[in-house]
């Protein structure tokens, strides 16, 4: 069975396939795509905006905002553990990640992401029409626009993941020994039961939010995004160490009812407070209380999804097989499709719901068509995160683990 490379592929260890994690990865990317469609319609800053943008969709966006990216980084950490444990050497593992993640980053920044900057500037009235004239300037390092170009925009997740993998690659043998020894004991201590799993895991994240976030707001600048790095690297490493930790996953299953209760209660509280004198309540609970509650909510939602996944999604399907190979390509393409479609459609004044339905349909169909096209072009598919079709050969010998 194939293993995932950190983004594309499936989760397997020996003969045990984690279909639930495959599904959660697909779900996480799918939510991210629809979240970015939502960003076109809310009042928060984004590349382009609908003429019908307003606060109506913001409560729904706030349901997924605290945990959507944390779930992706956690699953990526799990994926890296499975993949690195089966790698023939550290060098080959690093080279394979550079190939499967580095090339999509490069192609994405040069070609896929560029239209986002162009249409953002066009809607703001910052440039004259003419995409190719803009693109020539976009590729220069002279910084001719009020934004950094070339840029990675939504691909920052892939950039950060690639950076984390390259940073840990030289230490993989040591990390694996630690994960199987002292790391396993430490994880037992903090996640060896549902109560500990729910309340101890969140402590470092509360600390990051309290002490780092006020000084380092999220920028997606790789070298000056320390609060964001602290959050993402920690949840990534948690996924790495928890990947094969049986007691952790047992605790996740046992914690499912508790996690679901926290999600319902904290969500209900948030909706109530936002609907009833929010300014007053925000001044009362703002600070440490809000930080703890929001962090607990985010982790509870992730635990709820993982627990439900273990119980109800750990089974194969043809749809899952297809989406597992397609969803990274969808992720790379989706935001540029949303920006382009949204820019042109909002100028037609079709009405909020017709416009939303068209933007959504064009995004979904565009992602699907892009995947079907590029998967058939060997020289280009790797730049869209599409793996080559597997050659179904009988394995000769079990590969050795990463060498020390």
TrEMBL record:
Pfam families reported in the protein's UniProt record: Acyl_transf_3 (PF01757)
Regions crossing the membrane: 26-47, 59-80, 101-119, 154-175, 187-206, 226-243, 255-273, 285-307, 319-344, 356-374
An MF annotation (GO) of this entry: acyltransferase activity, transferring groups other than amino-acyl groups
Entry keyword set: Acyltransferase, Membrane, Transferase, Transmembrane, Transmembrane helix
InterPro entries found in the cross-reference section: Acyl_transf_3_dom, Glucan_succinyl_AcylTrfase
Presence of the UniProt keyword Cytoplasm in the record: no
Domain Acyltransferase residue range list: 19-367
Protein name in UniProt: Acyltransferase family protein
Species annotation: Hyphococcus flavus
């Amino acid at each position: 069975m194939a293993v995932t490379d950190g983004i594309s592929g499936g989760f397997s260890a020996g003969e045990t396939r984690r279909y639930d994690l495959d599904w959660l990865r697909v779900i996480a990317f799918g939510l991210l795509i629809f979240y970015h469609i939502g960003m076109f319609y809310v009042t928060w800053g984004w590349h382009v905006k609908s003429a019908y943008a307003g606060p109506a969709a913001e409560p729904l966006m706030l349901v997924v905002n605290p945990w959507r990216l944390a779930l992706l980084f956690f699953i990526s950490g799990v994926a890296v553990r499975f993949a690195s444990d089966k790698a023939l050497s550290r060098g080959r593992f690093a080279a394979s990640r550079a190939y499967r993640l580095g090339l999509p980053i490069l192609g994405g920044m040069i070609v896929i992401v560029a239209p986002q900057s162009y249409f953002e500037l066009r809607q703001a009235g910052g440039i004259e029409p003419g995409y190719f004239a803009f693109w020539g300037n976009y590729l220069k390092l002279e910084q001719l626009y009020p934004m950094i170009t070339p840029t990675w925009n939504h691909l920052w997740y892939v950039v950060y993941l690639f950076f984390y993998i390259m940073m840990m690659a030289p230490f993989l043998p040591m990390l694996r020994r630690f994960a199987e020894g002292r790391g396993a004991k430490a994880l037992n201590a903090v996640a060896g039961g549902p109560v500990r799993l729910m309340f101890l895991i969140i402590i470092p994240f509360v600390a990051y939010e309290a002490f780092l976030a006020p000084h380092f707001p999220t920028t997606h600048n790789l070298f000056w995004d320390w609060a964001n790095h602290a959050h993402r690297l920690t949840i990534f490493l948690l996924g790495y160490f928890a990947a094969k930790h049986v007691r952790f996953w047992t605790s996740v299953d046992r914690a499912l009812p508790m996690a679901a209760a926290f999600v319902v209660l904290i969500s209900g509280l948030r909706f109530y407070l936002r609907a009833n004198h929010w300014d007053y309540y925000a001044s009362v609970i703002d600070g440490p209380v809000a930080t703890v509650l929001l962090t607990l909510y985010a982790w509870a939602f992730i635990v709820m999804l993982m627990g439900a996944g273990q119980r109800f999604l750990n089974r194969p399907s043809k749809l899952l097989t297809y989406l597992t190979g397609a969803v990274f390509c969808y992720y790379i393409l989706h935001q540029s499709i949303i920006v382009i479609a949204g820019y042109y459609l909002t100028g037609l004044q079709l009405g909020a719901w017709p416009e939303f339905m068209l933007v959504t349909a064009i995004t979904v169909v565009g992602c699907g068509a892009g995947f079907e096209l590029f998967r058939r072009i060997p020289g280009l598919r790797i730049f869209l995160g599409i793996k080559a079709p597997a050659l179904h050969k009988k394995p000769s010998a079990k590969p050795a683990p990463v060498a020390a």
